[in-house]
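SEQUENCE WITH STRUCTURE:
===
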Amino acid sequence: MKNGSLSFYDQTYHEELLAFYLPLEQEQFTALPVDALRKCNEDPGRYPIVITDISGKAVGFFVLHEGENIRDYTSNTNAMVIRALSINQVEQGKGYAKEAMLQLPEFVSKNFPEINELILSVNFKNETAKKVYEKAGFEDRGQIKHGPAGPQYVMHYDIKKQ
């Protein structure tokens, strides 16, 4: 990533992630990193990922989720769901989310070679996020899922294997 990179979560990022702030209108669509990390501790199929800037500071966060608990999205056993993507408010608007999604297929291919599809859901009311995902190559294939804040588009990205 030209402005940073993707890394698996470790304790060195904990304080920065704890300090994340999201406005209330964004909190309805995603989880704060500290809450998402709690769920990762309860489910071995969840992998917390940190988005860092060029200096290595945590600016964003999301979870890659695989296993039986994603079957309400897909029957593809080689798929992963992206959950709880957030960019700390002070870092928003700098392209980190789009950069992370552009780099994610390569990151997943390297670290999870069996995975051939990425899936995420985005609330109907969150058009800004939907546009970011579309620019990164995710497709709306007409699948709709009901989420806690209303209906969601389910978006797919097929990972091409070399």
Remarks:
- The longest helix spans residues 96-111.
